[in-house]
Batch of 2 targets.
Target 1
Amino acid sequence: MIAELGLAALWLSTALAVLQMISGALGLRSGAGAQFAIYARPAAVVQAFLAVLAFFLLLYAFAVTDLSIKLVATNSHSAKPFIYKLTGTWGNHEGSMLLWVGVLALSGGLLAGLERRLPEKTMSATLAVQGFVALGFYSFLLLSSNPFERLPVPAIEGGGLNPLLQDIGLAIHPPTLYVGYVGLSVAFSLAMGALITREVNPNFAKVLRPWVLGAWVFLTFGITAGSYWAYYELGWGGWWFWDPVENASLMPWLAATALLHSVSVLAARDALRTWTIMLGVLAFSMSMLGTFLVRSGVLTSVHAFAVDPERGSFILALLGLYIGGALVIFAMRAGSISEGKRFTATSREGALVFNNVMLSAILAIVLLGTLYPLLTEAFDVRVSVGPPYFNPAGAIFAIPMFLVMAIGPLLRWKDDKPARIQFELAALAAVVIAVIALVAILGDYSVLAVLGLALSIALAIAALLPLRGRNIRRVPVATWGMICAHFGVAVALFGMASESAFTSEKLAAVAPGDSVEVAGWNIEMASVDPVAGPNWTAIEARILAARGDEEPTVLGPQSRNFWSPPQPTSESALITRWDGQLYVVIGDQAGVDANGNNRWQLRVWWKPFVTFIWYGGLLVAFGGILSIAGRVRVDLKRRNAVAMGKVRREDMDALAEGDAIDGANGSSGGSQDGPIPEPAE
Amino acid sequence: MIRSVVAALTLFGGLFAAPILAQQSMPPAPYAYVQLEDPVLEAEATELMETLRCLKCQSQSINDSDAPMAGDMRHQVRSRILAGESPTQIRSWLVERYGDYVSYEPEVSSTTWPLFAIPLLLLGVVALILLRRLGKRRSETGGHS
């Protein structure tokens, strides 16, 4: 029953998406059809409810391990811990696409239910586009990836979930990332809606901003969580490898970062109109491209994709349809949208434009490095593009970007004289040069790591400079958001540079009782014992780690063997200190020592300030939250003020009339709202 | 008592180790999991290993993989570094043997030139956009004022 209900809910959602699309499109007409526009909003809201319901039904099927459903039987197992039964819902293709579509419908529903600031026509167009996008992905789900398919005969036991995914990381990383990915669909629809109805103006930007910020916060958090998950789960201490799957999440983030800055310029200064629209299209296009890369199987092997191209070509067709359609509309309308207000190169807008271009260039590099190997593989030429390519190629654009990011917030809007901030410029330049000199004296490190360290410290100082000479208590919340996010970038950059420059590694084969030294830490292997979990067995080492003369901390890294599906994993053990992390992994048995004791492979790293990478990511996301809160608060205040002003004017009119005629029913308009204060700014 | 516990444990451990041993019938090569004595040479080796692809894995360098083949390749890299070969020599030896695919550091060749030409083109485009957006504006407003 559950599966059939879920499937029915999905089909109903699809039907509602059609209604939403047609109704929204009719709303654009001025004739008799316009009255049908009223169905677009309810269609989106009910659709959100149904799609989310479908997702929860699948979640339930996984929770009770309903082995008559093909998806559950292939990907779950009755002996799995309950939490991984739940998270396993999206640890597979169909389930994760259902989550994707559920979030898409939910964003559409929230947009339809909450957004009242736009002109009705723009809203109709936006909802029509949102419905059109949703329709494509519902069709994809129902026609080629039905999550609710039944088995003719229920399976006796499930196939189990990839052990690497049996971790709390799966509960956090994919859902947050998907909310970010798919939240960008709203930016896309709003951009299209504004473009179609020629409403690209600051009012539209103010509506767009919280959606972009919201999606961006989730993306930032999702990427940060994913990076930490890979770091501790894969057992080698890597936090970013420019892997295509990682790049697939980075590209929408880069586009969304550019977009949210561009939106701010549009909202504050009525400039960068076409830029903002273009970036809105680009951001969601990158989300869809990421979905294509991860979901089509093209990454495992281009040839495997070519053999079974159904899913891949479906997403590719959707990608072509939506991006192509958006570009056509853009081409038709671009001429009618003027660029907006002017500004000079040395203004805050100028700095933002510069960094928008830099972010787009980095995005282009990542896109090239990710797609090129896939392209050549199709012609049977296999090349690998990795960190040695991405790091320097990205740095060409990232370094100027960080420099401009440091000074941009100090500049005034529209036009400014660099001489006004010459003291700040000189101080920041001195910091950069001093750090470079200091690190160069300390040792021989890679150029990029040294530059990263210097820029991060300068950026951290620069992030706080906008507070200089201001009354701390009167700084707007949104400005705190910017400061927090920019400071977070500096913190993360510091962590990355520090990890790549200063990490110490120790590999050793040790028997119980032996110890190794790394970066001032003494690590003693006390014993190695077998342990067992619900669906795995493992050997667990008891490690005593101490820095200097301190009391040893006990660590228990494990080398696990899951039996369904059979796969070994390493469970690393970590000690977190303010200045870094100790990372310990136990590997296979490595022969015997001179006394006949079994020896085990031990891998130990001391990674100075590595945690700053993720603290920085969290700060960036938190900055986004502050910014949303600040913007929404100011916006609500202003709307209240406008509404109150209106009520007040009506009252005055009524009073004036009342004085003339009766005087008794004068204050009826304002009585519900109580005393009316002066409209606040 | 203690002896029997130990015996039971080794038996237990042996049981669980069996599947792993069955997978890799040969013990890992000496330098697969052992660092070079000289920290300078080891740093050189690590830097190289981080940029070589583990051919049996999906998107992992040989420095980040437990696959037996990655271990063998680490052994190759470390022992060649120890023998005095330069990282560049080792990389080209591996590329000769396994093809371009093994190296994460693409080099300019007939198949990879777009990877280098496009960023150069991008630099030009970026300069052009910035000049158009920021350069002209300045002179215009300069003219107005």
Note: Chain B touches chain A through 51 residues (CB under 8 Å).
Target 2
Amino acid sequence: MTIWKPTVLTRVMLGLAIIVSAFPLYWMLVIASRTNSDAVATPPKFLPGGNLGQNIIAVLTHPEAQFVAGLTNSFIVASVVTVSVIIISTLAGFAFANLNFRGRNLLLVLVLLTMAVPLQQMGVVPLYRLMVSLEWTGTLKAVILPYLLNGFGIFLMTQYTRQSVPMELVEAARVDGAATLRIWWNVVLPAVRPGMAVLGINTFMLMWNDYMWPLIVLNQENPTVQIAINGLNARFSTEYSLIFAGTALSIIPLVLVFVAFGRQIVGGLMEGAVKA
Amino acid sequence: MSLDTLPRATRNSHRRDRPPGRRWRSRVDVKAMPYALVSPYFILFAAFGLFPLAFTLYYSLYDYDLAGTVEWAGLDNYSALLGDDDFWRAVVNTVGMFILATVPQMILALFLANALNKRFRLRLAIRMSVLLPLVTSVVAVAVVFTQLYARDWGLVNWILSLFGVDPYNWRAERIPSWIAIATMVDWRWTGYNAIIFLAGMQTIPRDLYEAASIDGASRRRQFWQVTLPMLRPTMIFVVLNSTIGGLTLFSEPMTFYNGNPDGGSQGQFQTVAMFVYKEAFREFDYGYASAAAWLLFLLILIGAAINFLFVRRIGGTK
């Protein structure tokens, strides 16, 4: 069919889109691998230099950056939230999709409504006061707990379970005497694994990149990686090779995840969009 | 011997022989377990959703500061905000950047999605590369763009200088700083929105295009008269998403001023979210910040309603 064949214009547009998408990341690598005087040179240097290792060591050992702590903390926060959100969402998704109980539809509508409120901006002051009075500021708990609330996860897993776990399968397991939690573990979880992957990747990325709430509730002594970069940027804003080495370090884990799971991410996004 | 060959009566009696305690437990399991499974969400929502929302409203009616003095203020915080030039400047900045970022972003994303919808090799690789910006952290990218827009050594000014344009101080003035921040937002979200549009486009039945093509409609006409109207539900989703994200913009303008919520020397790119942050966590004026947070919510509702009505009209009359 001729209408689906790309024209020259389409090819040029796609080429441009790829270049524009990749360029800032390439530029990050260029500056991160050069000396600071190269970073501010005119005309600019367009090719990577040989200082990448040196700059990375400099940022990792910088006494005021706490970069190693930042990377470790971000990893802990993102992993704990991701695992918890997957458990909470698959359990609730299973209940909403496959179990009968009074008030099911009403509760599901409530979940959808709560998704529409930008809680992060709206509730930030009382949430901060709560963390202060619990003496949790400066600790990772304060970052982790509010993010266990994830309406999107419930919505996604409800949709996913509905479509991949037939009711007959659940009823058959019940007749065989399996309790609800056993059905969840043995029947539902194996069937919704692709949905779990999408939710997991999504949550991990959101947590890794989160900025506002950790900025409020943590401090420079015990930061997440974004807060560590923010601290460098605030105090040494023209030490480009140092900061850029830090930003490069901060996105490497995500790019690795992306390359490994790219197919699922693209597929999951497109599927989710059509269902929404 | 398999179960099927047993007489029916034997099978049933076998089930009835279960000890009563187990039967009771299984009834509780069926009746109560569903509530147990969905309860974590609602407990979390009560603690980290409902409680903060309610207390934001409560704080906003009080004069409440770091020293702990709490005094009833009624609607004073709100009326003070409505008379506060700094607040209005933040509102104008937020809406201005939102429009500057969203309009080109939607148009580009639509055309990009249309291009991605063609048949070509390396499809997955190309789709992944337009999504690449999404997986990078906002702060990291804002740092890179801030350097690209730097006055004395930034790449943008260097390219302009090749055309004889004098170096521009992107951060110092209102519109240029908005443009710089809007490009950061667009870089991150255009590819994502294109992928969402693409998903919507692929649900459009092919017969519609075939019929249009038999009727002699050119490819361009098919895009305007088939693709766009059929894409309306997806567009509503994308536009509402962008409205919430755009009106709560925080990370990019914060990083553009090295993590300072002032948003430039004259507050020229301070957003409402930054205003809330500054009032709460630098001025420690919790009541005022809470009132501003509610006005931000109102702004989002208004923005969402306007955009919803706007999108509903696209292609609707044809």
Note: Residues 145 and 184 of chain B are 7 Å apart (CA to CA).
